Q: What sequence folds into this?
């Protein structure tokens, strides 16, 4: 029996990534999108994240993609450059097998190596017993806010929960000039 491998996603994975996300949008409450985006839109999103140097990973077993995770900019303003927002989605038939945990552990490691200081999880339907909340708690994320009744999907109001994980000294140290966010910032300013 082979094990799950976590690797960098490629454009060849986008058909399966699109299917996994379509299921999450159609049947779940983690995403507040109401209509699943098509392959072309998912490709644009993938290209934007990877061009920005953000980690985008897949979990694969026996050549089948079981899930994916990525980090992207939390907000576009430059002072937010040290913070990323995580996203993780697992195929319906792979849930409960530790795929999300393995993806998130690898994503956290990649974000830390890049020099980011905080990872923010913006969790739709942030009930205390939700799989996403429990996963993030297990990984050391702390609760940092709740927007009550912020989304309406599948005939009910949903709360959005914010969770946060500090990396690389967080706000206790000055920015690392060699970090990915700081290098991109300097390049964008022509320095």
A:
């Amino acid at each position: 029996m082979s094990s799950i491998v976590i690797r960098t996603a490629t454009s060849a994975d986008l058909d399966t990534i699109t299917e996994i996300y379509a299921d999450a949008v159609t049947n779940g409450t983690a995403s507040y999108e109401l209509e699943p985006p098509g392959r072309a839109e998912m490709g644009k999103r993938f290209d934007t994240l990877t061009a920005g140097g953000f980690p985008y990973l897949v979990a694969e077993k026996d050549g089948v993609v079981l899930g994916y995770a990525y980090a992207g900019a939390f907000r576009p303003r430059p002072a937010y450059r040290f913070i990323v927002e995580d996203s993780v989605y697992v195929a319906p038939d792979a849930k409960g097998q530790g795929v999300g945990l393995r993806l998130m552990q690898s994503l956290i490691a990649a974000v830390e190596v890049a020099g980011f200081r905080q990872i923010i999880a913006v969790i739709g339907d942030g009930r205390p017993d939700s799989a996403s909340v429990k996963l993030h708690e297990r990984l050391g994320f702390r609760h940092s806010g709740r927007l009550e009744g912020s989304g309406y999907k599948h005939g009910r109001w949903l709360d959005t929960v914010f969770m946060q994980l500090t990396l690389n000294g967080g706000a206790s140290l000055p920015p690392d000039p060699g970090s990915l966010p700081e290098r991109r910032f300097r390049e964008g300013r022509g320095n």
About this structure: The first helix runs from residue 14 to 27. DSSP finds five helices and seven strands in the chain. The CA atoms of residues 49 and 105 lie 19 Å apart.
